[in-house]
Sequence to fold (731 residues):
Amino acid sequence: MAVTLTPADRAVTPRPPRPARDRHHRGASRWIVLTLVTLGALAMLVPFAFMLLNAFKSPGDYSTGGPLSWPSEFYTKGLRTYWTEVDFPVKLWNSALIAGSVAVLGVVVSLLNAYALGIGRVRGRLWIVGLFLLANMLPQESLIYPLYYVAKEIGLYNTRLSVIIIFTVIQSAFGTYLLASVMSTFPRSLLEAAALDGAGRWTVLWRVVFPNLRPTLAVLLIFFFIWTWNEFLIPLVMLIDNSTQTIPVALASLQGDRLMDAPTTNAGSLISLVPAVLFFLIFQRTLARGITAGAEK
Amino acid sequence: MGRIRNLVAAVAVAAIATTTVAACGGDDGGDGSDAKTLKLWHYESANSAMGVAWDRAIQIFKDEHPGVEVQFERKAFEQIQQNAGMIINSSEGPDVMEYNKGNATAGLLSSQGLLTDLTDEAGKRGWADKLSPSLQTTARYSDKGVMGSGNWYGVPNYGEYVMVYYNKDLFDKYGVKVPTTLDEMTAAMDTFVGKGVTPLAEAGAEYPAGQLFYQLALSKADRAFVDDYQLYKNPVDFHADPLKYGADTFADWVRKGYVAKDSASLKAEDMGTAFISGKAPMIVSGSWWYGRFKSEIKFNWDSFLFPGNKLQAGSSGNLWVVPANSKAKSLAYDFIDITLRPEIQDLIGNNGGVPVAGDPSKISDPKDRKLIENFNTVSQQDGLAFYPDWPVPGYYDVLVAGFQGLINGSKSPDQVLDTIAKPYADGVKEITGK
Fold:
C-alpha cells in the first residue's frame, strides 16, 4: 500500500504541483513509461469492457456467439430480470447501510486505538500492533463458525448488526495497524507545543492529530467501504433472509447448481458495481478538497 | 473454489463437534398443526420447470389452507449448499426447503439429527409407492448418513439423467443415423472424424469428463457394481472391468479424435455453448441442459439414451427436506404432498423438466415427452446409477484431475485409475470404518 510508504499528508496527494523545469527533461524514457502505463490501464479495463459487452446480450446470443461476439440486439431483459428478481433496491440499502456503518465505525475505532498505541505509546505496543495484524491475517474461514455460534447465542444471527460489528472489528484491525505506524512518526514537537498550551489528551486528538491525519482517514474510509461492500463469505453465512442480504450475496443467487446464466450475471455485476464506483468518485473529490484545506493552514 | 471447499470442510468438522447440541435442540419443533405460517425455501430460478411448477404448488397450498401465510424465499444455491447446517440449526431456518441429495449433504445433516424423519409420512401419504427404487435411494439415509437404506429424510420431485444430445442438422448433413449400440455410436463418430469434425464436445475441467467415463464403464456394469461403487457393499477393483473398460475406452476415444485434446481445460459451460452454437454434433450430458437448449438452440436437435447402456448416470433431483427445527411440520408435509400430485408433476414435464411421477401422455410437446419417456424407461428398469463423484467427499476434484490428464495425454488409463483408486479407498474407509 502506497499509504505506508510516505508520511500520511503526502500519501494521498495524487499530483504534487509539478515544477516548470520538468518540461525540459522530456526524453524517450518518458514516452516509454507513458505507453506502458496506458497499456496497463487498458489491460485493467478489458474485463469491464467484457462485462459491458455481455450485459446487453441475450442468453441465446451469448451461447451461439460466445463472449467475444458483438450483440445482435440491445438486450436489457437481463438487467431487468436481475433488478426485480433479487429486489435490488433492498439489497442496495442493506449493502450501503452495512458498508457505510462499517466504514465510519471502523475509522473511529482505528483512530482511537492508534492514538493510544502510536502517540500514547502504551507498554508493549509492538506486541499489540502485532496482534492486530495477526487478527487481520487470519483467514475468515477459520472465524466463521465461532462467529456463527456466538451470533446465534446472543440473538444477532441473521441481523445486519452482526455483520456491522464483525467487519468493524476486522477492518479496524488493519486500520489500527496502519494508523499506529503513521502516528508513531507524528512530529513530537507539535504534540509538545500543544501540551504546553494546556491541551489535554482529548483535545490533542481532535485538534492536533485528527486534522493532520484527515486525508489518511479519508483513504481508510474509502477502503473500508469498498472492502466491506465486496465481502461475500461472512454476509453469506450471517444473513440468511432475503430482506437482510447484501449485493454480492444476491449476485451469487444467479449461479445455479450446474448451470450459469452468463449474460444475467454480467448484467447483475454491472448494476452491482455502479454504486461502489459512484461512491469512490464522489469521495475522490472530497479527498482532494480535504488535501487543499490542509495545505492552506 | 478452494476457499469454499476449505470452508465446507471446516464447517462440517465444527458441525459434527456440535452434534450433541443439535440433537438436544431437535425435539422442540413439534407437529405444529396449528401453525399459521409456512416458511418455504428453494433455489430454482423462476422460469425453470421446477420454479414454474412449484409456484403453482404454492398457489394450491394457499387455496387449501386459507389463513396460513406462506413466506416463500428464493435462495442462492451456494448459500444453501454451504450453510444449510448452520441455518437449520438456528431458529431462523425454514419449515420446508429444497436441499441437495447425497451423502455429503442431506446424508450428513440427517446423521446430525437436523432433519425430520419422514418415513411415516412417506408410507401414509403414498410417496413410497410413487417413487421407483432407484429414486428412493437418494431419499433414504442410514444412521451414518449413507444413502440407499434407512429412514426417509427427503422427498425428490424431479429426476435427472445423462443422455446424448445430438444436432439433427449435422447428422443429416453427414448422413449419420442415430446409433442404438455402442458400436454404431463409434461408427457414427468415425464418420464425423473422417469429415474433419470432432464428434463429441467435452469439458475436462468440470464434471462432464467424469460422467462420460462413468457412462462408458456402465456399459459393462450391472446393478451389483453400482451398489459396490456407490453404497460400499463390496470393495471395488479399479483395474478390472467395468472401470478399466471405461478408462481404456475413454483414452481410445481421445486417441481416435472423438474428443478433442484441448477440451482438457474446458468447462461445462464451454461444452454447452459449443453444442448450442452448432459446432459440436453431440454432447454427453445431463437433463439439466434441456430447458436451456430448448430456449436457445435454433437448429434441429434431439436426444437419445447413451446407446446400449442399461444403466445410466442419473438420479433423483434435489429433495424437499423438513428441518428438525421446523415449526410447521404438518403444513410442510401437506406442501410436499401437493408437489407430488399429477398436476404439478405434469407441469414440471410440460416446462422441460423431468418429473419423478410423470405421465408422458399428459405432456404436449413431443420432445418433452421423449425426455420423460426415456427417464421413465431408465427409472423403471432400475437403471439410475448416480454419479461417479458421489461415493466419497472431495472425489469430484480427484476425477477432474484424473481425466484432465487422460484427455491431454499426460497420463495413461492405468495411471488415471491409480490416481482415482486411492482417494476412493481412503474415503470409503473413513465412512464405513473398514
Observations:
- The interface with chain B takes residues 59-60, 62-66, 85, 139, 141-142, 144-145, 148-149, 152, 157-158, 233, 236-237, 240-242, 249-250, 252-253, 255-262 of chain A (CB under 8 Å).
- The radius of gyration of chain A is 23 Å.
- Residues 1-13 of chain A have pLDDT under 50 and may be disordered.
